[in-house]
Specification:
about 150 residues, Rossmann fold, five-stranded parallel sheet, 5 strands
């Protein structure tokens, strides 16, 4: 059975990255390699929160990023996900702004995704948050997805 990977906004963003800094080029290359060569080995899902974030503001290749998401199954929003987000914010797992980070974690937890794939190392994939996320998710009776930004086989 394939692992379920919840993909948040940074993945399509880095797929179409145009910033020339070496670390940005490396992240973009890794993202393209994974998307083009390994994605089919996983059940990749996402949410309308990603679509909403990609639609906001002006950024290069915006439509290309949105088009990339057309092949990804979007998980439906439920009121329970909104309640989970409120707990994450009140327990200071994620900042209130941007609310989307808490929303991504709530989707991945609620739908029991194996992995939450992100390049957001400040709010989502941060080593100091793992224990706090585990504690709160256990308190809520939720699954704890692996929070990864590199090798999905870890």
């Amino acid at each position: 059975m394939k692992k379920t990977v919840y993909m948040e906004t940074t993945v399509p963003s880095y797929y179409y990255n145009q910033r020339p800094a070496p670390e940005m080029v490396a992240l973009s290359q890794w993202t393209r390699d994974w998307w083009d060569n390994e994605r089919q080995d996983y059940d990749v899902v996402s949410s309308s929160a990603v679509i909403d974030e990609l639609r906001q503001g002006e950024h290069p290749l915006k439509q290309d990023k949105l088009d990339l998401m057309k092949s990804v199954r979007l998980l439906p929003y439920t009121d329970e996900i909104g309640q989970i987000v409120d707990v994450y914010i009140s327990r200071r797992i994620m900042p209130n702004d941007p609310r989307g980070d808490a929303l991504h974690l709530a989707y991945a937890s609620f739908y029991k995704c194996d992995v939450l794939l992100s390049w957001n190392c400040q709010h989502i994939v941060h080593y100091q948050k793992v224990g706090h996320i585990q504690t709160v998710n256990q308190m809520l009776g939720l699954h704890v997805p692996a929070l990864l930004n590199r090798d999905l086989n870890e």
